[in-house]
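fyi for ur records
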Amino acid sequence: MFFRTLVVLFLCCVAVVPMPAAAASYTLDIIDDAIKRPGDVLSFAYRIDNAAGLATIDLLLPYDPLVLKYRSASSALFPDAPWDSFTANDEPGTGVRMSGVSFAGLSGTDQTLVTIEFMVCMAPDCPADAPVGTINMGFGTVELSVYQDDGSGFLLPVPVAAGDIDARGSATLTVLPAAATPGPAPWLLLLPGLLALSARRRQQTAALTVR
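which gave:
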């Protein structure tokens, strides 16, 4: 609500440049499948097709805190302009909520909306290492609004109907066992004995020299 109010106030104070007509439907997807181990960093990207005069976004990406630890989220650049305002908040038990506002309206096809970064859980940063297996990173909620002419020459953000948003697909994360901690090189195991042998030889040489 805050973002939409901010957009309306902005539009009331400045002249608005005509925008292209909004597309009839919007397709969103998550890309970048991944195979990772505990401690690895990975990112997922939200992509949108048919964006035309996109004013606001509100995306929720649920995730399992026993598998992933949230690190950051960043807005992406469209061909014409970036988001004028972008926030990302981790909501424990719910997911990561990302919101963006564009005063100019974003348009483009096959564009990345936002990129979100996680770490695969590894103790002690998490209660335990992420369990081995495969999970799907799907969509939670998706809300969009686009600029439309209100009939008086002003463009106002209008919510896109849920039926016109196709949030399809999901990204797959495969978690492998934690990498084994490498042991010492074999020659290092022999080092104490070699040093002791060298010391004894020096002692024997010194004794012979004294005699």
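The CA atoms of residues 32 and 44 lie 6 Å apart. thats all i got for now
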